Amino acid sequence: MTQPTIAPRALPAGAPATDGMRFYLTTHKRHWVKLTNVPLFLKSEHFATAAKLYPALGPYAVDSGGFSELQRHGRWTRTPRQYVSDLRRIWECVGPYDWAAPQDWMCEDLIIHGGTAGPLAFVGTHLSVAEHQRRTVANFLELRSLAPDLRIAPVLQGRTVPEYEQCVGLYERAGVNLQQEPTVGLGSVCRLQSTREGAAIVTAMAAHGLRLHGFGFKILGLERVGHLLASADSAAWSYHARKRPPLPGHPHKNCANCLDYALRWRTRVLAAIPTHRQTLLTNRSAA
Q1: pLDDT tens across 64-79, in order?
Q2: Residue 5 resides in a domain
Q3: β-pairing, 120-122 with 115-117?
């Protein structure tokens, strides 16, 4: 398997790459941490169930798996203490991660009201957006209290710009200075990230001076607002590969679990992310 030859860059927690964006490949293949030094985004549950963990060659961040938890159960089945225990084991065995997501509560309609989306069934939490926001902030505060050393990042939740502004206010009233946080996650934007509404949300939150991480941002969304994000992640490469034949010389049915394919797709994504300079030049030309 082809492996990158570029040495990993040592950056402080949450810092973007020198081009202004740190893009994480999302994968369920936890052993990829020993095969590549490109930034990876992995669910904590995939580490928690592993008998053996490998030291990471490069930077990585940890997803709490909240979408799957709330989709299947309509609640969190792991307590904050259990989650902290999982995070500590990952930190000690795999190495210090850039940051870890809290046990946040997404605000998509399917998560709240339930229903089906293709093969996925959602039981629904049947709670309000405001309650999801309250629980998200409360969980972050509890996790930060239990493990202040584990780089747990606050996450903003909502569905509209005013709702995200309300979530910012919840953190402020709790004494959390989001401007000083190395990473602030922007949740519930995966299905909005390529739309005008999604762009408005990212723009409004970036105006607060936050170092935003966009969860589940695909190429179209990154082309539009990637210059406003400090980092982003996506697993879209796997879906992309599942619909196409494998790479030449690859014996598998498709490359949905293939590191080579993921790395090639990542190169395309990085080329699509506008830099601040490119955006300024485009705006000037349009004027």
Answers
A1: 999 999 999 999 999 9
A2: no
A3: antiparallel
| Domain of residue 90, CATH code | 3.20.20.105
Q: Using the 8-state DSSP alphabet, how is residue 175 labeled?
A: T
Higher pLDDT, 150 or 280: 150
Q: Is residue 220 very low, low, confident or very high in pLDDT (cuts 50, 70, 90)?
A: confident
| Domain count of the fold of the chain | 1
Is residue 6 in some structural domain? no
Residue pair 201/164 in contact by the 8 Å Cβ criterion:
yes
Domain membership flag for residue 279: yes
Pairwise CA distance, residues 263 & 255, whole Å: 11
User: What would the pLDDT profile of 152-204 be if each residue is shown by its tens digit?
Assistant: 999 999 999 999 999 999 999 999 999 999 999 999 998 887 788 999 999 99
Residues spanned by the domain of 241: 22-286
CB 105 within 8 A of CB 136: yes
Within-domain flag for 3:
no
Residue 113 backbone dihedrals phi, psi, to 5 degrees: -100, -15
Confidence of residue 245 (pLDDT cuts 50, 70, 90): very high
Angle in degrees, CA 81, 174, 200, rounded to 5:
100
This prediction has a pTM of 0.88
With CA atoms as reference, report the closest residue to 52 among 101, 93, 108, 99. Answer: 93
Backbone dihedral region of 74: left (phi > 0), alpha (psi from -120 to 50 degrees) or beta? left
Alpha helices in the chain (DSSP H): 44-48, 66-73, 80-94, 109-113, 129-146, 161-173, 196-206, 219-225, 236-242, 259-272, 276-286
